[in-house]
Amino acid sequence: MSCVVAVVGATGVVGREMLRTLELRRFPATEVRALASARSAGSRVPFRGGELEVKLACAEAFDGVDIALFSAGAAAARELAPLAAARGAVVIDNSSAWRGDPDCPLVVPEVNMDAAKNRPKGIIANPNCSTIQMVVALGPLHAAARLKHVVVSTYQAASGKGHAAMDELISQTRELAAGGEPVGNVFPGALAGNLLMDWKAGSLPDWSEEELKMVNETRKILGDPEIGVTPTTVRVPVVTGHSEAVHAQFHRPMTAAEARELLRRAPGVRLFDEPYAPGKHPQPREAAGTDDVFVGRVRDDLAVPGALNLWIVADNLRKGAALNAVQIAERLVG
Amino acid sequence: MSCVVAVVGATGVVGREMLRTLELRRFPATEVRALASARSAGSRVPFRGGELEVKLACAEAFDGVDIALFSAGAAAARELAPLAAARGAVVIDNSSAWRGDPDCPLVVPEVNMDAAKNRPKGIIANPNCSTIQMVVALGPLHAAARLKHVVVSTYQAASGKGHAAMDELISQTRELAAGGEPVGNVFPGALAGNLLMDWKAGSLPDWSEEELKMVNETRKILGDPEIGVTPTTVRVPVVTGHSEAVHAQFHRPMTAAEARELLRRAPGVRLFDEPYAPGKHPQPREAAGTDDVFVGRVRDDLAVPGALNLWIVADNLRKGAALNAVQIAERLVG
């Protein structure tokens, strides 16, 4: 059986990771098309030991496509995803364009793959990176004890903002190492040797767009609009690998022992199960380049009986973006 | 009137900052003695445009000393602080040695200077850096609405661990900038381009010593043993400047508007009062080298009515250590 896959935004940092992920996981594609905007059309991207020529992402480019993996930003997704879907492709879009649409399921395969069945627009949305890794860990706990309130502080990597941001952190780091003062162009200031909140303002005053994504997407994926989510999203001078400190309260008491038991069996989770010891915890440097969501520091709360604390780390380009999209595609074809 | 000040641990990163702070703030000392262990005795440290010869910190070195600022570690403080106090000095100790002793007040001048009056052992403890900046911000809110529960995630700088740690982060950053793999000696792994929890294990399994300090010290300084504190302490690749994401619940509802009003008038606080915008928030790079506790992102909680969120940044060597100790001394002599 043939399966034609298009990767839209193929030259971006997530688009390239999508191609790499299709290749590494031996996705059963009979054809893979690399698509991008006019600016990048004509360039080449590596794939399966060779190269793909990048074609213009226009309506006709989706003729015959079964699955279109989009990572081209929200504006392009709003325009092109319906065109791809109208031609019969199932779109899996990594942007925020369709995440809030009640007719577009928002899917993390380990948590709510069933939701992907009902896709009247032919579009499945891939969640935000910081939300994906959190719900992979919290999903099994929510299923057991129903989440009531989550306080999450993030430690997010530069690559979540794309190639230019990664490059800028690397050049800022060189500048800092040479004793200079890093300057921000992509970032609103120095990230090397510093911390930044660099996301756009959200629709509520005092909150960033990234923070509100975590609120809305967590509720939608877990299928519970009453879950309280209190995020503070922070960029740290790490190239790849998002980390999160999570405090979670449930409708019925959850113990760390029960949570560990659930997480040990949870798909996509690698549990760090030792008691606290310095350096023996999930780290972005170790999670980068891997597929799992690393969960450690699972602790009974000291103040709120039945509440839990966790430390969650994952590769934001893989499970946080490309891998999650490809896993959705795998389940669709499998 | 004469006022003889001793700085114990004068060659350490906080000891040097204590000398610099005494100088910058024109502390009315008629004599300043630089003391240290046998390893450092005989060396010289800069002070008031000249140098002080570092003398051995032994009992006799405290003869005639009015105020002894200690930053020599817990073991030295346990041994030497009582000897200094027995000779009539008021000891202000930056280590953890005396913080839990009910006979030693634990003081942040803006919050509980009154507690310093009752010091039967002649020893005042200077709190942990991460606790000081948090209680400077939360103290006025606690006074108004009584804190019930605090969830705090820290983003702590390398200099909190001393000279060797600062140097190692800098050399790791050079290694990373050159494309190499940073190695940890002082740290239990790479901190450059990564995150670490590098503190010793605490007395409770699953918690680090740093986290338990934040629990116990917050309660003691704010004088309320019922305050729930849920900390996750994390080291980030920043040389100086601790940051904290704080979620706070109170016994009566507190609004962001009320909190801002209280924080605008709070001693030691510099309030960032704008709505969220990228890069317009307190940052460690800007706080380093300054005296204030920077508070921003004051937000009504989205989930818990009457709860608040804040982002708190300060120089961990100044307000987090040396400055707080010198401010205590200033109030004692003033």
From TrEMBL, chains A, B:
Question: What biological processes does GO assign it?
Answer: 'de novo' L-methionine biosynthetic process; diaminopimelate biosynthetic process; isoleucine biosynthetic process; lysine biosynthetic process via diaminopimelate; threonine biosynthetic process
The entry's phosphate-binding residues are 99
Q: Which residues form the active site?
A: 129 (acyl-thioester intermediate), 242 (proton acceptor)
Q: Where do the Semialdehyde dehydrogenase NAD-binding domain residues begin and end?
A: 4-119
Which InterPro entries does the record match to this protein? Asp_semialdehyde_DH (IPR012080), Asp_semialdehyde_DH_beta (IPR005986), NAD(P)-bd_dom_sf (IPR036291), Semialdehyde_DH_NAD-bd (IPR000534), Semialdhyde_DH_dimer_dom (IPR012280)
Enumerate the GO terms in the molecular function aspect: aspartate-semialdehyde dehydrogenase activity; NAD binding; NADP binding; protein dimerization activity
Q: Which residues does the annotation say bind substrate?
A: 156, 209, 235
Which reactions is this enzyme annotated as catalysing?
A: L-aspartate 4-semialdehyde + phosphate + NADP(+) = 4-phospho-L-aspartate + NADPH + H(+)
Q: What does the UniProt keyword field contain? A: Amino-acid biosynthesis, Diaminopimelate biosynthesis, Lysine biosynthesis, Methionine biosynthesis, NADP, Oxidoreductase, Threonine biosynthesis
The residues that the entry says bind NADP(+) are 11-14, 39-40, 159-160, 182, 316
EC number(s)? 1.2.1.11
UniProt superkingdom:
Bacteria
Q: In which pathway does it act?
A: Amino-acid biosynthesis; L-methionine biosynthesis via de novo pathway; L-homoserine from L-aspartate: step 2/3; Amino-acid biosynthesis; L-lysine biosynthesis via DAP pathway; (S)-tetrahydrodipicolinate from L-aspartate: step 2/4; Amino-acid biosynthesis; L-threonine biosynthesis; L-threonine from L-aspartate: step 2/5
What does this protein do, in the record's words?
Catalyzes the NADPH-dependent formation of L-aspartate-semialdehyde (L-ASA) by the reductive dephosphorylation of L-aspartyl-4-phosphate.
The entry's family comment says: Belongs to the aspartate-semialdehyde dehydrogenase family.
Subunit record text: Homodimer.
Protein name as catalogued: Aspartate-semialdehyde dehydrogenase
Q: Which gene carries the instructions for this protein?
A: asd
